[in-house]
Design brief:
Low-confidence stretches: 359-365
CATH topology of the largest domain: Endonuclease III, domain 1
CATH class of the largest domain: Mainly Alpha
Number of strands: 12
Radius of gyration: 25 Å
Order of helices and strands: HEEHHHHHHHHHHHEEEEHEEEEEEH
Oligomer: single chain
CATH architecture of the largest domain: Orthogonal Bundle
CATH superfamily of the largest domain: Hypothetical protein, domain 2
Strand content: 5-15%
Number of helices: 14
Shape: globular
Helix content: 40-55%
Mean pLDDT: 93
Largest sheet: 5 strands, mixed
Length: 365
Amino acid sequence: MSASLSSRLLRWFDRHGRKGLPWQRETAPGQRDAYAVWLSEVMLQQTQVATVVGYFERFVAALPTLRDLAAADEDTVLVLWSGLGYYRRARFAHQAAQICVEQHGGKLPCDFAALKSLPGIGRSTAGAILAQAHGLRFAILDGNVKRVLTRYHGIHGDPAGSAVEQQLWLHAEAHTPQRRVADYTQAIMDLGATVCVRSRPRCETCPLATACVAYRDGLSAQLPTRKTGKTIPIRATVMLVLRDKQQRILLERRGTQGVWSGLWSLPEATDPQAAWRIAGQLARIDDAQALAPFTHVFSHYRLNIEPLLFDHASARHGVGDNPHLRWCGMSELDALGLPAPVRKLLLEMGDRKARQTQTPLLLAT
């Protein structure tokens, strides 16, 4: 069965698989740049290939080697990552690069255990790096692969549960071929991403359909077993937009925990009354203007954001220009890691302000 699955997948990959992706370029026959493979694997966690390609190319253009990533400051890394979300991935990658410089000669280790010990690299990611960069026989088990193997073998139960996951790992190991490991790894990920998709799988075009238990038993819509549906919680926050007479905005660096960790963002409050109190502690303020509220959707909750503009604020002594608070002009935002919705809000405010201050043309008569 193992040879059948891998051989069918490889034949399918030769005709339909995704080739020519920027991290697939060979540095030597059968060898790919491990740094590029690693970055792509980290970026592809929770993010689709079509989205990742542009971010990947921008990232490696700025930081082309692992040593460059290790030497970069955190703001540079977060700016390049801005928009991909899940910023802990970027911070872990930065830390891992620094460890590789300190302990592994500036390269990703080829040893599985050493690779897996680096921040942000788990069993599947380590296997994907070794398989795709070096052609070594290591299995992977990302979300796409779990879906393929769950349906192929007709496995019921939560794929994230330890018992089912252990079973899936056994199948993943058994199916991984001795040769063309890099192509097989890409093939099974591609099949899960393009054919054996979560909703409405294209079973009629699948190279594994004739041996697939879910297809045979009409269970493709039921497998993998879904978790009991939960109502996505809704949270709310008030974002303080403190803008001084020089059109600078007061930004606050977020802590190392929670969403947007380590990014520069706007100070926040739980409600408008608390917003006034916090704003008064940060600057001398006069009046406030409620801006259009909006909602940002995370994977596990929705955040209703109410921006409150305190225009012509005056900085209080000791507030700003320190590691945690700083006043920034619009031209400085490009060099800072900002959450995507905050960046969008500030850029829209800047555009609106620019339109308001444009001098009208006087036509000669």
